[in-house]
Specification:
three-stranded antiparallel beta sheet
Length: about 170
């Protein structure tokens, strides 16, 4: 994950001077304050986000005047999600539901299951074979099972195939 912002002092920019710095988020509050002080401002002064380099497995737009504290908090949450290995899950949840990133961060684990790297056909096969194994269905019977029909039913029941795998949204 990369979350970099180029921030300029809006007061100086209005005078014709581009006094700015790159912020590599997330940062501690102290690091953020010290970095902004270098360009003669604080998080409460006027600033303009002139550029953003955000590399995530989904699209996220940043406005020129979005709160730096908010973006830093968001970057912290995304860094935690990345540490858990869940960025692809978050991307799949957003793709499947269309929910905002903020809502997704708070709810993806409660409202979905992610089958990383699996197609919907893989998920259907695994579910069928888990049932076959649990109930000791003999192979001479299980070979007649219609996996395509199960796959179609799963798709109707909230399973969605995304770039990083298949997600079940409930």
């Amino acid at each position: 994950m990369e979350f970099k912002l180029y921030v300029v002092n809006a007061t100086e920019y209005g005078k014709g001077d581009e006094v700015g710095t790159w912020l590599n988020l997330p940062m501690t509050c102290n690091e953020l304050d010290v970095t902004l002080e270098k360009i003669g401002m604080s998080t409460h002064d006027n600033y303009i986000i002139m550029d953003a380099e955000v590399k995530l497995p989904f699209t996220y737009e940043i406005g020129e005047y979005t709160s730096l504290e908010y973006l830093n908090s968001l970057a912290n949450a995304l860094a935690e999600i990345e540490l858990k290995g869940d960025l692809e899950w978050v991307a799949a949840y957003i793709e499947a539901t269309g929910d905002s990133l903020e809502y997704t961060i708070d709810n993806y684990e409660k409202h979905s299951t992610f089958h990383e790297g699996q197609t919907l056909a893989n998920v259907a096969w695994n579910k069928a074979h888990a049932y076959f194994d649990a109930y000791r269905v003999p192979e001479c019977i299980s070979r007649y099972f219609d996996y395509d029909a199960l796959e179609a039913d799963l798709e109707q029941d909230g399973y969605y195939e995304a770039d990083g795998g298949t997600i079940e949204v409930y």
